[in-house]
Amino acid sequence: MEYIKKLLAEGEEVLRSRIPSRSRLIVDLVDSSKYNKWVMNCITFLEEDAPVHAMRIKEIYIPQYCIFNHAEQILAIVASAGEYLEHKYTQKERESKVQKEPAEIFNLDHFHPKLKEKCADHFVSKKFDDAILNACKVVEVHTRDLANLKETDIGMNLMMKAFNPDKPILKYSDVKGEQEALMFLFAGFIGVFKNPQSHRFIDIKDPGVAFEILNFANQLCRILEQTKNINP
User: Fold this and answer.
1) Across-strand partners of 29?
2) Element (H, E) at 171
């Protein structure tokens, strides 16, 4: 972030080099040497860390026209890039701290009983892939049991069958669009989190990521408790 401070300071220096036109028909200029050097520094330093901001500067920058208003706009973009990068790095630091925390600090006590029974030991043992796969199985089995479907009804097809908005077995809402959305929510969860875990080792190391997925599964289990089997 030090280079952002330097770019802001250079930009202030450019603005202080303002050359008044003394005419309402002609724009004020700034020192061309200072301006062009500063803008090139801005683009060079921001191109990797904040490419969108660098692109916005390029759209404004016309080397042969060292216009005061352009310098003001570019300075504002640099300030915006500074705020963006500060947020970005702060977020990374938070994520890094979470990754360094032991799995034991995450509280699984609020989880649905079925989920806690099948996942807690794996999670605390840092077997996150196993914990996630079991969480998916809990959602799958709980759905199948509530819908009184067969053992051969599995995966995404199970969810499409159980929550089918045209002929639902587990009804969540009288609004067809909401019922359909729930069907896709459950099917998507299984497709995204169970299928990959079933066929290969994902090797998740971050307890925070694993905990968020388990929380997702927990919410789905809570939703299942609100459904009604209309085809018992």
Assistant:
1) 19, 67
2) strand 170-171
Whether the CB-CB separation of 36 and 28 falls below 8 Å is answered with no
Q: What angle do CA 116, 228, 196 make, to 5 degrees?
A: 45
Structural tokens at position 44: 């060079």
Within 8 A by CB and 6+ apart from 131, the residues are: 119, 122, 123, 210, 214
Cβ-contact 89, 1 below 8 angstroms? yes
Among candidate residues 170, 135, 127, 119, the one with its CA nearest the CA of residue 149 = 170
What distances in angstroms separate CA 174 from CA 32, 71, 170, 230, one per listed residue? 68, 58, 11, 12
pLDDT tens, position by position, 11-49: 999 999 999 988 877 899 999 999 999 999 999 999 989
C-alpha of 182 from chain center: 21
**Residue in the structure block whose two tokens are 């500074």:** 82
> Token pair 């220096």 is at which residue?
13
Beta pairing partners, 184: none
The tens place of each residue's pLDDT in the chain, 232 residues long, gives 788 999 999 999 999 999 998 887 789 999 999 999 999 999 999 998 999 999 999 999 999 999 999 999 999 999 999 999 988 887 766 665 555 556 667 888 889 999 999 999 999 898 999 999 999 999 999 999 999 999 999 999 999 999 999 999 999 999 999 999 999 999 999 999 998 877 777 788 888 889 999 999 999 999 999 999 987 6
- Among all chains, which residue has been given the structure tokens 């706009």? 73
Going from N- to C-terminal start, the domains of the chain cover 2-100, 105-229
